[in-house]
Specification:
Length: about 375
């Protein structure tokens, strides 16, 4: 049985890499008769924690639910503020509002699209309970620099690492030495479980509390009770959620994790080729990796410069007409109707410019050199009309 989906003609913006190994792992779960959170979730947590050099990992149903639990676990409550980038997927700010707290938007660096020590410092107040930094599109944010600004105020730097599996920071995996990071396994990310998420952290006590909160606040899991030779009566110590991952998802995740190094290497190779093809074309400014880390290039975006004579949307239309799956770059949360009632504390000129003028290019594991040349040819022709 092969699960590889054949591509026809067009170039998608990205595509998950799944093979017969994932299919066999799912069949094993079905044969086992235990489908919900069980031994495979435990193994996936342990393997993921080892991969990102974290002490503990807690699997969840998505990165959004992981972020919700992480902020809750760090005591975020109504009246608090959490500093976040606006230049991110909307879930980054939504989770702050789930807790009745206020997202305070910080601007980003134009090179990598991430918040910086300066932009975060400008958004901190006495009510800041946490900073939620995003490794946007897999680009590593400078967590140590953020920590230097935040630690005098006792404000933890948490990480939205939704896109960042396989990215590195200071020579270590993103997620090592972290107060808490949340990960996504949505099919748009580099490795996938269909839907799914993970929290990694170095605080074992907090990890235990998050594990309980993920399963209705239950003191012991159904799996642990099932495995026990004695009768175990669970208790419910606080109001929790059902944010569990299934063993079906975890079985896929365990296989995907073995693919991660090759998937990242391949994405970096494709981006390297784009950078060569785009060199000498001043109408494009590609996003740039920082000196202190490496991106997995979950997202590769270019900004249209003043040298371009067409609008961003004209270029996107030309790409769509050529059956090339390009997207606008990263959204700006504060410009969405759901955020009309959240006032800006500081202006966000870089965020607004990048969201208006950037384009995400396709990075697909099996794309050919010829396909990359076609993308850049269409891009170049459309930008000079
Ligand atoms: C994808 C993404 C999320 C949401 O992840 P889900 O697993 O779909 O909930 C959150 N933050 C960022 C930055 C993302 O890119």
């Amino acid at each position: 049985m092969s699960t590889a989906i054949q591509r026809t003609g067009g170039i998608p913006v990205t595509r998950p890499v799944l093979g017969p190994e994932e299919a066999a792992a799912v069949v094993d779960v079905l044969d086992s008769g235990w489908l919900s959170q069980g031994s495979r979730v435990v193994r996936f947590e342990q393997s993921f924690a080892a991969r990102v050099h974290a002490a503990s990992a807690v699997a969840t149903s998505s990165c959004t639910t992981a972020l919700h639990l992480l902020l809750l676990g760090h005591g975020v409550q109504p009246g608090d503020e959490v500093v976040v980038p606006s230049f991110s997927f909307i879930a980054t700010a939504n989770v702050v509002r789930y807790l009745g707290a206020t997202p305070v938007f910080a601007d980003v660096d134009e090179r990598d699209g991430n918040v910086t020590a300066e932009t975060v410092a400008a958004a901190l107040t006495a009510r800041s309970r946490a900073v939620l930094a995003v490794h946007q599109g897999g680009m590593p944010a400078d967590i140590a620099a953020l920590r230097q600004v935040c630690s005098p105020y006792g404000v933890p730097v948490l990480e939205d690492a939704a896109c960042a599996a396989g990215s590195t920071l200071y020579g270590q995996p993103v997620g090592s030495d972290s107060a808490g990071a949340a990960w996504s396994f949505h099919p748009r990310k580099v490795i996938t479980t269909g839907e799914g998420g993970m929290i990694t952290l170095d605080d074992a006590l907090l990890a235990d509390r998050l594990r309980a909160l993920r399963q209705h606040g239950m003191s012991t899991s159904a799996f642990d009770r099932h495995g026990s030779k004695r009768f175990v009566l669970e208790s419910y110590d606080e109001v929790g959620f059902n944010y569990r991952m299934t063993d079906i998802q975890a079985a896929i995740g365990l296989v995907q994790l073995t693919r991660l190094p090759a998937l990242v290497a391949r994405r970096r190779e494709i981006v390297g080729r784009y950078l060569e093809l785009l060199a000498g074309q001043p109408q494009f400014r590609p996003c740039r990796e920082p000196t202190y880390g490496q991106s997995n290039f979950q997202t590769f975006w270019v900004e249209l410069t003043d040298e371009a004579s067409s609008s961003r949307d004209e270029v996107l239309n030309a790409l769509a007409a050529a059956d090339i799956g390009a997207r606008r770059g990263i959204m700006a949360i504060h410009l969405e109707p759901a955020y009309a009632d959240v006032p800006l504390r500081v202006p966000l000129p870089v965020t607004e410019r990048l969201t208006r003028r950037s384009i995400t290019l396709p990075v697909v594991d099996d794309m050919t050199v010829g396909e990359q040349e076609r993308v850049v040819d269409v891009l170049a022709a459309a930008s000079r009309r």
